[in-house]
Amino acid sequence: MTLEAIRYSKGKLSILDQLLLPTQTQYINVNNTNDGWQAIKKMQVRGAPAIAIVGCLSLAVEMLKTDITSSEELGNFICERLDYLVTARPTAVNMGSSAKHFKQRVTTLLKDRDLKVEDFKMIIVEEIEKMLESDRSDNVALAKYGAGDIMERCTHNKARVLTHCNTGSLATAGYGTALGVIRALHEDGNLDHAYCTETRPYNQGARLTAYELVYEKIPATLICDSMAAMLMERKKISAVVVGADRVVANGDTANKIGTYQLAINAKYHNVLFYVACPTTSYDASKSTGADIIIEERPAEELTKIQNIPIAAPGINCWNPAFDVTPAELITGGIITEHGVFKPSELKHKLKPFITKGGL
Ligand code: MRU
User: Fold this and answer.
1) pLDDT at 359
2) Residues whose CB falls within 8 Å of the CB of residue 112, separated by 6 or more in sequence, listed in order
3) Domain-by-domain residue ranges, the chain?
4) Which residues are near ligand 1 (CB < 6 Å)?
5) How far does the centroid of ligand 1 lie from the alpha carbon of residue 84, in Å?
């Protein structure tokens, strides 16, 4: 059984507190959008798809408790709460696209004057609930395409893959994106070895990806971020596969800080560099990576680990949580649930799957 980061049954939501992993496995209840916002901001849940799913499910839970009796009022409440959830973390597009989509659904449903407020509520709640299953099935499809492409282009019988940050079951509704590709290679007997970076400063690789790889019994090795060039030089890496917080129209990709330097390293060493991007992480409204807002996080994430100081007191810190990898460095391609595309093809290939509402 794969790890379950999000537990939901009608009106009841709990999440695995990712700040406590790998030493403690503790689920916390999310009773409303204030809890959802806090959990996202504190990174008790993180990863672009999981942020949107938990944000929206926190709204579903709160909606099921409200006793609002007018459709207008309910519509305003949903839109206001969605806008609030988007403010928790700015870089990943998924929560923003979901908000846009559900706000548009509210506008459409309000046009139906015969729709009772309870039915209006249940339509939105059930559509939110569907996000869990559709994210999971998208990940499985994406992973199959990614694993297939790697094996077609790999010069060895089995692939050796390096990944960064955490893009697995913990970052999604299940299976994972970049880590899903590694999982699919392993399931098909095509994985020689996976390598994961520690992912400083917040150690999502060491704490979470390593945890998932051990849990799934996938052959894997942890490295520090600073070892990536040496790894590519010495270990015959077939491909680097990373996730995405936002891929824009020209293919430029915002992902966890450190992704950009891995792409430069991969180019130098002739290693294929892939970005795993479900359509929910694609943002057609922005032309290039220069338009993406990069979240900056507190200095303490650099200067302390589990509250223990590791840096000289008084030093200045800069802590951007993400960087932007230029499309030209994405030499393997962008892996989606609809196929693997060159960055330059993405806009055209994904067009049929993008609705006006943003999802
Ligand atoms: O700051 P985080 O941990 O939310 O960053 C996560 C990443 O950068 C992931 O690579 C990305 O969200 C994709 S998760 C499928």
Assistant:
1) 62
2) none
3) 6-134, 143-355
4) 46-49, 92, 165, 167, 171-172, 177, 204, 243-245, 255-256, 321
5) 20
Distance CA 196, CA 164 (A): 6
Give the pTM.
0.97
Cα-Cα end-to-end distance for the chain = 29
User: For domain 6-134, is the CATH number 3.40.50.360?
Assistant: no
Name the phi and psi angles at 276, rounded to 5.
-90, 115
Which portions of the chain are predicted below pLDDT 70? 1-2, 356-359
Where b means 16+ CB within 10 Å and e means fewer, 242-276 reads bbbbbbbbbbbbbbbbbbbbbbebbeeeebbbbbb
Instruction: Report cis status (omega within 30 of 0) of the bond before 313.
Output: no
Clarify whether 192 is annotated catalytic. Answer: no
Q: Compute the distance from residue 172 Cα to the ligand 1 centre, in Å.
A: 9
Distance CA 224, CA 350 (A): 35
CA of 174 to the centre of ligand 1 (A): 14
Q: What is the pLDDT of residues 281-312, one digit of tens each?
A: 999 999 999 999 999 999 999 999 989 999 99
Q: What is the DSSP letter of 24?
A: -
List the beta bridge partners of residue 275. Answer: 242, 334
Give residue 65's pLDDT: 96
Query: What is the model's pLDDT at position 83?
Result: 98
Q: Closest residue (by CA) to atom 15 of ligand 1?
A: 167
Query: Strand 322-325's sheet: what is its strand order?
Result: 282-283, 246-248, 253-256, 322-325
Distance from C-alpha of 260 to C-alpha of 6, rounded to nearest angstrom: 29
| Superfamily (CATH H level) for 143-355 | Translation initiation factor eif-2b; domain 2 (3.40.50.10470)
